Amino acid sequence: MNQIFDPIELDEIVKSQSTDPSAVISVLQTIQEKYRYIPREVFRPLSLKMGISEARIYSVVTFYENFSLDPKGHFVIKICDGTACHVRKSMPNLERLRKELDLPEGKVTKDDLSFSVETVSCLGACGLAPVLTVNDKVYPAMTPDKVSDLVAKLKEELANETH
Amino acid sequence: MTIDGQTVEIENERNVLELIRKAGIVLPTFCYHSELSIHGGCRMCIVEDDRGSLIPSCSEEPRNGMIIHTNTRRVRRYRRNILELLLANHSRDCTICFNSGNCRLQELARSFNISSIRFMNTAHSPHMDHSSKCISKDPNRCILCGDCVRICNEVQNVGAIDFAHRGSDMHISTPFGVPLAESVCVGCGQCAAVCPTGAIIVKNDINKVWRALDNQETFVTVQVAPAVRVALGQEFGLGDGENSIGYIVAALHRLGFDKVFDTSTSADLTVIEESREFVQRLQSWHDMPLFTSCCPAWINYVEKHYPEIMPHVSTCRSPMQMFASVLADEYRKVPGKRHVHVAIMPCTAKKFEAARDEFVTDGQPNVDFVLTTQELVQMIRQSGILWEDLEPEGVDNPFSVYTGAAVIFGVTGGVTEAVLRELADDHGPTALKKLAFVGVRGQDGLKETKITVGGKELSIAVVSGLGNASALIEDLKSGVRKYHFVEVMACPGGCVCGAGQPVVPLSHRAARGKGLYSADLLTSIKRSEDNPLMATLYDGLLKGRNHDLLHVHYPGHKGHHNHAA
Amino acid sequence: MKLTSRADLKEARQIFSRALQLQETKILVCAGTGCIAGGSLIIRDKINELLKAKSLPVTVEMADEPHDKEINIKSSGCHGFCEMGPLVRIEPQGFLYIRVQLEDCEEIVNETIVAGKHIPRLAYTFEDKMYPKQDEIPFYRQQTRVVLEHCGHIDATSVKEYIGVGGYSALEKALFELTPDKIVKEMSDSGLRGRGGGGFPVGRKWAEVQRQKNKPKYVVCNGDEGDPGAFMDRSIMEGDPHRMLEGMIISGIACDASEAYIYVRAEYPMAVNRLKLAIEQATDIGLLGDNILGSNFSFKIKINRGAGAFVCGEGSALTASIEGKRGMPRVKPPRTAEHGLFNQPTVLNNVETFANVPEILNRGANWYNKYGPAKSPGTKAFALTGNIRNTGLIEVPMGSTLRTIIYDIGGGIPGGAEFKAVQIGGPSGGCLTTDDLDLPLDFDSLKKAGAMVGSGGLVVMDSNTCMVEVARFFMNFIQNESCGKCVPCREGTKRMLMILERIVSGRGNIGDLDLLLELADTVSNTALCGLGKTAPNPVVSTIRKFRDEYLAHIVDKRCPGKVCAKMRRYYVDPELCKGCSKCAQACASAAITGKVKESFSIDLSKCTRCGACINTCKFSAIKEGW
Known about the structure:
- With about 160 residues, chain A is an alpha+beta fold.
- Chain A has helices spanning about 5-15, 25-35, 45-50, 55-65, 85, 90-100, 145-160; strands at about 75-80, 115-120, 130-135, 135-140.
- Chain A folds into 2 domains: about 5-65, no CATH class; about 75-160, Glutaredoxin (3-Layer(aba) Sandwich), CATH 3.40.30.
- In chain A, about 45% of the residues lie in helices and about 10% in strands.
- Chain A has a 4-stranded mixed sheet, covered by helices on one side.
- The model of chain A has no long low-confidence stretch (mean pLDDT about 90).
- With about 625 residues, chain C is of the alpha/beta class.
- In chain C, about 40% of the residues lie in helices and about 15% in strands.
- Chain C contains 25 helices and 20 strands.
- A 5-stranded mixed sheet of chain C has the order 2-3-1-4-5, with helices on one face.
């Protein structure tokens, strides 16, 4: 789940890596693993600790696809649209997924932070195309109907958890 | 090596492009600046070798026996296509662009005779940034050459802007796109100075000044900074660094200013005040070393990047503000026309300084408007004044006297030399002349010198360029270096290379410094204290009020109090 | 255990090798990403549990005290036959069971492990022929596995097994028998060319770094396998990580580097874990760290994870990313060999290249360059994906033909469709068609054919594919991944994509093809890095080979592959239409007109192909056509 930013934790994260500017990507990755996104409040202290301008950190964060400046949903679903998945028709899966979750194109995360849907260029599981992942677990050989079943299952899981 | 059939000797050139330029061939580039790291993004400098390979000349090392062609059918076609691609994503309303006529993209589009663009125009970014008092940013005119990013980071170490996002979404941005005014930008304007298009421009305040001049109810005074006189003339055909103060004064009179003054006059005040402060601090040894305070971008830099060193910064107002205090006292207290004060500066950050709360008296800024050298050029052109017809004139009384020490304020090392003249044990002309050779002159980013004054050896540093300043601060903090006095100018080379000046290549800028030193030679008084006007001021208007009128306590300074309160 | 001398390593090898020999039965469960997704780890645990329940002497790790009736369950690297996963191989018989499910475990234990019998229903069958043994299956029989020799045959998580099958003997040789010059010479003589895309001779690269006086020097392994449809490097990192580490250490010896980085793309979390484990094991046992095997050579390896940028597969972008910067390529010269990571001399090779190194040193350059054509010797791993029967990971000698790969190994095109094209070399490669089926796949012939080996992804496309749409897909990918630094790639690919989007949506002009080719020429000649220079390849190669498909889209507004949604034609079947007018009401662009109770008709010039009408018609009177 998305957590509230804690400056003391940032200290520990930076300490566990390095204050050398070259470590900024791995520090950001650790922050993202912790909070599931890069909270804006991280920038100032991180800039001071690592001696890199906030503009440079922002520049790095926005360059790499995996960093998110927005909180992510409980379930992050990544649809692979690599070549192999694409020629085995991955796009209909995405369409179904968006429809099931009522997520319009261009919107990544549900307002209630339940689901995030992203496309990725290749997960390297091409033999199982088309694939998607839910919180990094791979689901092979997907079809739109299997997508619907999966969403139903995940929604149920979510409902059980919140109770 | 051979360039377009000419044999060119390879000396110490870093790359083929420099050699090509040495051979007298003007190769178009957007992202190449000899003082910045090599970017290689614009691809305009591509040339063809004898085997038909295409080489970006900015990054290619020159080798003996190399044969290159800079103007083949292929490279012309590619350059043209690249220009077309850039133009397709560019706001093409050149006529209303402030940089029209001063834009490399426009110039190249014209020379390549590009009359139609085969692609839809996609320059529709809504993210204009007019928040800063000094500069404006328009992404629709940006060609992403990154010159601004590199100067902001590599030279100035300000780090206000960088590339954000990637690919066709890439743009130049502050973190989270916050307005520049809320960012760590210090307003030095160097980004605007290197921008080849109109994407980052200096704020323009000409119309406000015209309004004041047009108004019969106002009494408009103006001060001109030392650095302006050695740069403005080149826009009217004078040589590099040629002193044109007489013409400038004449032009300002013609434009309708009621009184024209020279900031050099108040620079003499600064020298005296700063010297006194320095002597005091030396004696009490508090907050040493002393940093100079004339440069507004430097003050911003301290506030935003090194607030902890503010107590070390002199409390002296900048010469512009000292003059403004004196003039406000002189003219605003007298009933009659409303007094408006304009300053002609080589600087963009002065626009910010003028608007600071610290320099507002009774709701009116002491300096109402700051114009850059380039804006003055524009005003002269707008007014239709023919430069050739001007006859040099002198500045107006009662503040018409200044010394050589004050004139050299505009170049890096000048403030220090002026203070040294003030403090020197021997005031004889030979001794004062010798100060020129103690190591404070020249274009180096960091100059260090030791000089004995009153039996005490003083260690002095002169830095220009904020990157050099921050390196020096780090060294002071870690104890690697120790000084008594540090002069800082935000722009590399000092005010003569300010972002408000007409832009010239680095190699030409040295001439401007020389111009000021020549102006110094022409003055009859070399020490500020010897300026007879000073005695008049200290005995008159400034009597008992010199601290109030000539000093300032910024947040972080001892004795700072909130002006809003 | 810490090995501190050559003798220690030799002794350890003997012990481990004997332990492997003593394992009477080996159950190799594929633990590649594909099979794990299919549940292979659960199967592994289930088999273990069942064997334990029978009190059989089962082990999952190499036992310290080898037992001669031992049954060992291994988590092996990718077997390659991903289409058929989860895969389980049983030794000594060499049986391969495919698509194994949890329910099959009991039978496998009872029938095969205990009774030694084959289970036909779990075997691979093709065209009515059953193949009990892995080696007999055509998919495997036609391959030559050098780099992948251990994948699927040893436990991917055990340094002991790697040593036991002869691993780290090349390192031993490099440390104690060869001089750095000799190592570089061996690499040069072998003719090995970089497997990452460019095909630069490895010997030459190493020699250049060796010559540099500036220290420290670095070794960097490029594991940022970003080409969609390529997963060779992932399989090596997951399946035989020590082989790659050994290659890296050897290059460190050759070039006098003692620090190394592996840059792994973010999408490969398991590869990162396996590599971490392998580095830990190698360090614990004394094959990494200070004074390796008592020599004065020290070597350390760090792992950097990518953060999602395809361009980081480019050398200078990759090193920038390790330095914590935006992954933007920089201008060359200076080259990476001189000024690479942290501006120091750097050996930069990809995973497969490093994995080739140990065997070349072990067996010699002459053995290696016997495979493949003289100028592109050796074998190459390919990932076979897309519309092909046997997707998976394969390795063949360089110079094998497309026909061998697609038909003999890949088993041809499934579902009755025809082979149409194969995209080779990733999004910036090119496409090959039926005309190229007998083209030998090697660096030089492919370049001539307008494609490239790239990292080795082969995406097969069948007759139901629209090549214009494929070109748009690749251009979209490249455009998303362009770093934005240089104008031709940033602006040029954007314009090319806009033109392609226009064409697939039926708004193309006849001048578009020339404009595309002109842009392609500018981009490929002036872009800064390899990604940009090759970005137009898919467009150029599809225009060259499928010009008629482009023309069909542009002139006839028709998609022969029946893919492009905007080319669909809707019409009303007058026989079925009752004239209810529902469709006309649903049509947002007023393309449907008619009189109530008479047959309606659709004006295709107004139709936006949204499909709303088809959904509202209760009588199925609206038909779709191409």
